[in-house]
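hey so i finally got around to running both of the ones u sent me last week. sorry it took forever, my laptop kept dying halfway thru and i had to restart like 3 times lol. anyway pasting them below in the order u listed, first the sequence line then the C-alpha cell line for each. didnt double check formatting much so if smth looks off just lmk and ill redo it

first one:
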Amino acid sequence: MFLYAHNIFVVIHNLNNLQTLNSGTHLFIDDALIASKQGVKRVLHPCVKHEAPVLEPDPNNPWEHGGPDQSRRVHLYGTTMYDAAYGKYRMWYMCRMGPHWRFKANEIPGLYVPRPDRNPSTYRGKTQDKYGRKFVENDRGDLTCYAESHDGLTWTKPNLGIFEFNGNPNNNIVWDLHGASVFRDDDELDSQKRYKIIGFCRRYRNVFFLTSPDGIRWHDSDYLEPVAQRNNEGCFNVIYDNKTSLFRAYALTRDKDKDARRMIEYTESPTLEGPWKPLEPMFRATEQDDEVGIERYGADRAEIHNMSGFLYHNIYIGIAGVLYVTGPGAAEHEIPVDGPIDAQLVCSIDGFNWDYIDSDRTPIIPRGETGTYDTGMIMGTATQPIIKDDEIHWYYTGTEHTHGAAMNDRHKVIGLAKWRLDGFVSLDAVEGIVETVPLQMPNGTLEINADASDGQMRVEVLTADGQVQPGFSLDDCIPLTEDCIHHRVKWKSAQLVNAIQPLRFRFNLHHTRLFSFRIQ
C-alpha cells in the first residue's frame, strides 16, 4: 500500500462571498478575494535599493547642518512626486538647525525665530508675527527645502532666493514645516493655488495649510489659523484617497502607557483646509512587536515611530517604522532612547485598521550592512511612492546611526527603494492552485502579473458554484511560460467576455510566482 500526503483543498461553493470588482488591478496581499488555495505560500519581497543615496546633506549648505558638532540631515517626512505638468520629479524634504542655545543662532527673516535663551518665545523683543500670531517655539529650526530631478536619481537643489539665510538668498528653503505633504490640484480654478501643502509648523506648534502657484513660493495669508489640532512634532503624513474622496492623515503621537510609547493616530477631512476630525488612536506596537524586539535586538520594547499609507489598487498599503528601544540615548536635550528602526509593510481594507503582512516582521526596506548609509534606521518614507514604467519607487530616510546617537554622530540621507509593479507580495508555488471567490465584474480581458520563467501558469474560468465553464478549462488555456508584468490570458476558442457571471478564476501555478491579476 502506498500512502500519499495531500494538502487540504477546500472550496466554498456559495454566493455569500460574492465580490463585485471594478476594472483595475487586484493584489494577493490578503485573502479577501481567495476562496481557497493549495500548495502556495505568501511571500514578502524586500525592496531593491539604489546603490547610493539620491540626496545627501551638502557641507556647503549650512541650513542642512545643525551647526558645530550637530547633526547633518536631509529628512523625508514629506512628498515626492512626478509632476507631469512640470516635467520633473519633485521633492519637498526637511532639514533642521538648532537648538540655537548651543551655538550662534542663524537668521532666516520670515521663518526662523531664534530665542535669546530657552524661554520665552521671542525674537528681538517680538512675541508674534506680522499677522498677530504668537510664537510658540522655533528654536530647533525646522526647514522645508525643495529639490528636483529629471530621472528621479540625480537631484538638484536650486537656489530659489525666497528666504535669506544669514543674509544670503542662495538657498533652496521654501518654508519651515516639520514634514510637508504636497498636492497638485488640477481642479483648482485659482491658478495661484494650484499647489497645496499641509504640515506641522513649530513656530505655532500646530498644523497649517498653505497654497502656491508653482509648489515653490508658498503663501499663508489666506489660512492664518491651524486646520488641525496637534501640539507635537513628528510625521503628519497626508494622502488623498480617491476611493472615498477623503484626505487621510497619519500622525506620530505618544500613548498613555508608563513608557509613553510612540504610536500613530489618525484623522481625515474632505478637504485639506478642513474640517479635520480630532485625532484618534490607530496603530500601536503589539506584544508580538515587543517579542520580535527582544529576540532580534535584545530590546526593552517596541514603538511605532512613523507611518505612511496610501490606496494601492484594491487595498491600502503602508510602511510603518518600528523603533526597538534598546536603552537610553545621548545626553539631555538630545535623544532620550536608543535603538534601530525597521521598516515594516502593513495593509488595511479601510485605511484605518492596519495589520502586518508578514508575521515574522521581515523588513520591507532592510537596513544596510554595517558601514553603509542606512545601517542604523529606516527613519521614514515619503507619503507615498511614485509608480512609473512598471516599477514602484519609494524614497526613504536612511541613517548610519541608531535613534539615540549623539548629535555630532547623526547623519541622515535619502535613499530609493524599488519594486516591480505590484511586487510587494506574491503567492509562490512549486505546484499550487488559487481559487477566487465568486466575482461580478465588468466585461474585459484578464491580465496577470506573474513570473513563470521556471515553469508555467494557466487559468481556468469557473461558474459561481465551481464548475469549469466550456472553453475555459486547463487544457484550453494558453500557458504563461515567462516573467511578465502584463500577460493577457488567452484561451484557444473562448473569450472572457462570453463567460457566465458571477464567475471564479482558478490559477494553476507550476514553479510560478503570482503577484496580481487585472481586469483590463
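and the second one:
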Amino acid sequence: MKSMDTQRLILFFVFSFSLLLLWTEWEKAQRPKPVATAPAAQQPAQSKNVPGVVPTPQTAPTATLAPSIPSQAPAVAKGELVQVRTDVLVADIDTLGGGLARLELLKHKEADDQAKNLVLLGPEHQYFAQSGLTGEGGPNHRTLWKIAPGERSLGEGKNTFEVRLSAEGRDGLVVDKVYTFKRDSYMVDVALEIRNAGTAPVAPHAYFQLTHDGKQAAGGSSLAQSFGAQSFNGFAQYTTDRKFEKVQYSDIDKGKVDTAKQANDGWVAFIQHYFVAAWVPAAAGLRDYIIEKRPDGIYSARVVLPVPMIAPGATAKVDAPLYVGPQEQRRLKEVAPGFDLVVDYGWLTIIAWPLFWLLEKYHALSGNWGVAIILLTVTIKIVFFPLSAASYRSMAKMKLVTPRLTKIREMYANDRARQNQAMMELYKTEKINPLGGCFPIMVQIPVFIALYWVLLAAIELRHAPFMLWIHDLAALDPYYVLPILMTVTMVVQTKLNPVPPDPVQAKVMMFMPFVFSIFFFFFPAGLVLYWLVNNILSIAQQWQIQRMFERGKPAHGKR
C-alpha cells in the first residue's frame, strides 16, 4: 500500500483543524436561542425586572424551611441608584432590592470603543447580582432597602470602605446588607447581618444569585467568540465532588441541568469571554444550588445558604463574597479552589497552563506581551528542535530523490503495484522513511492548538500593544501586515519542501499557503505573530539542514 508522505499529512491536519473551527461555529449557531424578553425599563425602575420564584432548598439543613418568594413585586416599589467607586470599578447599588444593578470596570475598555470603560453588570442583559432572604418574610431583592450615610469611595490612604443597607421583613426579621469594597480588588465582600426582633425563633435561608438574559455578553472578542471554545457564555458551578461544570442554555431550557444540587462547598458563576462574576460563600457548610429559567425568560443561578436558628433578640451573619471582574490568572487563583478553571482551555488544559505560566514569566521579564510571545515561540522551537530536525532531514532526503520518484511514476504509470514496489525499493536503498517527518509534526500539533487557546483566552492580551501599528494583540492586525508576511513565509516553506510526484497533489500544495493564510487574516495579531516567528525559525532550520544534505548529494545522485 502506498504510504502517505509528509505533505499529505500536513494537508490532512490543516483541513482537520479548519473543520474543527467550522464545527465550533456551526454548533454555536445551532444552539437554541433564549426566549426574547421585553426591553428593560430605564433605571432605576427595576421593579419591572421581576424575577422568578426562589424555591425552598431540596433538603432542610435546619429545622424550619423557608417558603418561596412570590413572583410578583409590588407595583409601587421604586428605588434609587447609589454609586460607589474604587480604583478599579464603579458600581451602582439599587435601593430597590439592594443589589448591584450596574458595574463598570475602570481598567478595561469596551471591545468596540476603547474610549469607554467596560460595563460588566447592567440592565442591557438583565445582568444583576442580587441577594436576600427566601420566603414571604424577606427581605429580598424586591424589597425597598434604606441606605445608611457613609463613604461612597476610597478615601486618601484607605484600602477599604463599607456601604450598609437595611430592611425589615416579616416575623420581626431585620437585615443589614453590608458591601465591603477594597483597593485594587474585584472581590466585593457581601454580608447579611440578620437580627430576630420577633418573639419566636426563626431559621431563615439566605440566597445569592446572578441573572442574565442568555444573549451573547459584551466585552469579549467577536473573533474569539467565533473560533474559540473558551468563548463559553453562561453559568458554571464548582464543588469538590463534581469539580468544574459548565451549564448550557439548551439544558436549562429543557430542565436537564445536571450539576450538583447540594454540596458542602463550592461557588456559582456567570462566565463570558475574558470576564466572570461569581458568588463564593466564605464558610464551608451545606448549601443548595439552583440554575433555572424564569417564566419571564431570564436565566438565574443562585446558591442558597441555611442560617442557624436565631433566638429572639439574637443575631446571625451570612457571608458570600462576590467576584466580578476580569479572568486574570493571578487574581483567580486567590479567590477559591478551582476558580482559575473559568479560563477554560478544554481538553488541552494540561498543556495550556504551563504555556501561559511561561508566557507570564516572559512578560514579567520584557514588559511587553508581544515580546513575551516571541520568547515563548523561541522556547518552544528549542524544545522541539530535535524533532523538527528529524522532520526536516526526512524532507531533505525526500527532496533529493523526488526526480527519481517522478521517473518511477512515469515508467509504471499503468501498473500501480509495480510503481509502489519500485518506490519502496528506492526508499530502502536510500534509507528513507517516507513517514519520517510525520511523527514530529503530530507531536507539535497539540502544543500549537493549546497555545492557540491560550492566546485567545488570555485577557492579559486584550488591548495589549506590541509595537508600531499593533495596538491590540487580541484583535486583528489593522493593516494585515502580519498575515501577509505569514503568507510569504508559508510560500517559502513550500519551496523548501520536496515537490510531490503527483501533479495534482503538487498543485494543491502550491496553492495551500494562500488558501490556509486566509484564516490568518481573521486571527488575532498575537496568534499570527506566534506563527510568523515560528515559520521564520523553521525556515532557517530547514534551510540549514537542507544545505547539509545537498553537500552530500553524490550519495543520492545515482541514477
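quick thing i noticed on the 2nd:
The mean pLDDT is 80.
anyway thats it, ttyl
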